[in-house]
Design brief:
Blueprint: E1 3-6, H1 9-19, E2 35-41, H2 45-59, E3 62-68, H3 70-78, E4 85-87, H4 91-99, E5 109-113, E6 116-121, H5 136-140, E7 145-148, H6 154-165, H7 169-172, E8 176-179, H8 182-190, E9 196-200, H9 201-205, E10 210-215, E11 225-230, H10 237-246, H11 252-257, E12 261-262
Parallel strand pairs: 2-3, 2-4, 7-8, 7-9
Antiparallel strand pairs: 1-3, 4-11, 5-11, 5-12, 6-9, 6-10
Helix pairs in contact: 3-4
Length: 267
């Protein structure tokens, strides 16, 4: 699933002026206004929307964000999709771009951390304690376990790894509802179409129609980290300024409020 949002101030201003007949000067955006494009993991949507809205209002620049699974975004960038910043939900897909010289390595850092959780619809009475060999298959009771694509999307990869570590994957792998990204997996549980799902803690916090059944122990899967970097094709000074903001203490509250942990903070 791909969500795109734009903050466009100049266009709205020009439309208003056009209605009043004052068209002079509306053909172009102000010369000091920039458009910054971000490709970001779907799980970042709530926090990143708020953080970039704040920055856009204060800087006078525009921000376009495309949300999807990290694998989808990385492959799009590899095929030439134009963007200034990439924020992945795991290190693998940032490495994928680095190996192809598509990011500015000097700007790369691990920005955020997250936790993996098992969720159920809010009215579900299921009780499970995540532990080696826990009866996840029995709890599904013939239903599907909603997960992001376990072969490509970070949340799904982490989930498969965790279930494998706990010796549960082989018992449930034929009962997986594979979603194209973690927010799509969340939606399946939120709508009651799946009795259980595996998502990030931040996703669960963003949807009042689900509840956390339990949290996966961190030693069952690779450490969850969200790397951020400028893309090599970007030479926009506003993109560098936005990167500086997102990695600063000023942006931290937006992410912490949604349940992320900060791994890298500048001044």
């Amino acid at each position: 699933m791909l969500w795109t949002r734009r903050t466009i101030i100049a266009a709205a201003s020009c439309s208003l002026l056009a209605l009043t007949g004052a068209l002079t000067g509306c053909g172009d955006a102000p010369s000091d206004e920039h458009e910054v494009t971000i490709f970001a993991a779907a799980s970042l949507k709530n926090a990143l929307d708020e953080a970039t809205d704040d920055w856009a209002k204060k800087s006078g620049n525009n921000v376009t964000i495309s949300y999807a699974g990290s694998a989808t975004l990385a492959k799009q960038i590899g095929q030439g999709a134009p963007a200034d910043l990439f924020i992945s939900a795991n290190i693998k897909w940032m490495d994928y771009l680095a190996e192809r010289s598509l990011i500015d390595e000097a700007t790369r850092s691990n920005l955020l951390g997250n936790r993996l959780v098992l969720i159920a619809p809010k009215d579900s009475d299921v009780i499970l304690k995540i532990a080696p060999g826990f009866d996840l298959a029995g709890a599904l009771d013939g239903g599907k376990l909603a997960m992001a694509n376990s072969d490509a999307v970070p949340a799904g990869i982490y989930g498969k790894e965790a279930l494998g570590t706990l010796n549960v994957w082989n018992k449930v792998h034929d009962h997986i509802a594979q979603a194209q990204d973690v927010r799509a997996a969340l939606a399946l549980v939120s709508r009651g179409e799946a009795p259980l799902g595996i998502v990030y803690q931040t996703d669960a916090a963003a949807d009042s129609n689900v509840r956390v059944v339990d949290i996966f122990p961190q030693d069952t899967h690779e450490t969850i980290a969200y790397p951020i970097a400028l893309l090599s094709i970007s030479n926009d000074k506003a993109a560098k300024e936005l990167l500086g903001f997102l990695t600063s203490k000023a942006a931290a509250p937006y992410f912490v409020e949604q349940g992320f942990t900060m791994l890298n903070q500048g001044d």
